[in-house]
Design the sequence.
């Protein structure tokens, strides 16, 4: 009788734990979905959810509402529109972008545009912390061992072609807490195409990325095909920017590139080991 009672208690406990896990996953998905499809986003940005899979990507990285998360070079704020409100109540979103005081007009102009976007919608972006991450000189975008997660979406090719990627990865490693997560999405080169994988055409080898992150101290813990696209042949004159949403060739063969969709992308999850 005692054994039967004990078995029932164990089954009840396991059932409770299982339901709690499901509940937590549903809550996380509902929160991300709410902002990924929110009215604060333009129809154009929401339409890109089909290709960028933000909910599945962020869930794969293991994001939680109470985390402190840094996004490196958020650009126009596509992911900011999801991350900032999702983390607003319990966590902290840090946008590590361009230097507003840069002497290079491209950087200062885009920094101002991003800051203006945030200022125009305090309901969603009122608690965003702005920081600067501009290689090679400004890499201290967060205090050492202070953040739970750093995410980077299609940025590494820019650093690679200027030989700054290693320094940026080292800075990301420094900012993360032990057991912190580095989530990365990047245009992925194929076996043969493109021949130039320096970053000039936007594509990088997945093995090179993993090697570089490993040298910085990270350990690869998972990889996903969430953002993979087998239709991407990677043999375009204008590189990845031939495809949508850039369409660098304008109307030339536009329907062809539209049918391909956005680039094939690696999705990698690294951890900063607690014990080195």
Sequence:
């Amino acid at each position: 009788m005692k054994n039967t009672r004990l078995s029932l208690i164990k089954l009840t406990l396991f059932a409770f734990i299982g339901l709690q896990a499901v509940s937590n996953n549903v809550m996380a998905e509902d929160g991300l979905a709410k902002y990924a499809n929110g009215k604060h986003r333009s129809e154009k940005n929401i339409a890109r959810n089909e290709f960028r899979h933000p909910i599945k990507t962020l869930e794969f990285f293991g994001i939680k509402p109470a985390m402190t998360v840094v996004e490196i070079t958020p650009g126009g704020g596509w992911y900011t529109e999801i991350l900032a409100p999702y983390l607003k109540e319990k966590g902290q979103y840090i946008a590590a972008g361009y230097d507003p005081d840069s002497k290079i007009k491209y950087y200062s102009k885009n920094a101002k545009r991003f800051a203006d976007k945030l200022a125009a919608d305090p309901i969603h972006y009122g608690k965003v912390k702005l920081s600067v991450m501009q290689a090679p000189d400004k890499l201290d975008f967060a205090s050492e061992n202070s953040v739970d997660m750093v995410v980077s979406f299609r940025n590494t090719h820019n650093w690679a072609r200027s030989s700054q990627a290693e320094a940026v990865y080292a800075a990301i490693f420094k900012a993360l807490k032990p057991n912190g997560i580095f989530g990365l999405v990047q245009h992925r080169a194929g076996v043969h195409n493109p021949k130039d994988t320096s970053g000039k055409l936007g594509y990088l080898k997945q093995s090179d990325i993993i090697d570089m992150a490993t040298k910085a101290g990270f350990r690869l813990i998972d990889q996903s095909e969430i953002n993979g696209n087998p239709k991407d042949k990677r043999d375009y004159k204008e590189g990845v920017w031939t495809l949508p949403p850039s369409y660098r060739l304008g109307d030339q063969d536009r329907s062809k590139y539209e049918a391909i969709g956005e680039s094939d992308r690696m999705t990698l999850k690294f951890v900063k080991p607690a014990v080195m």
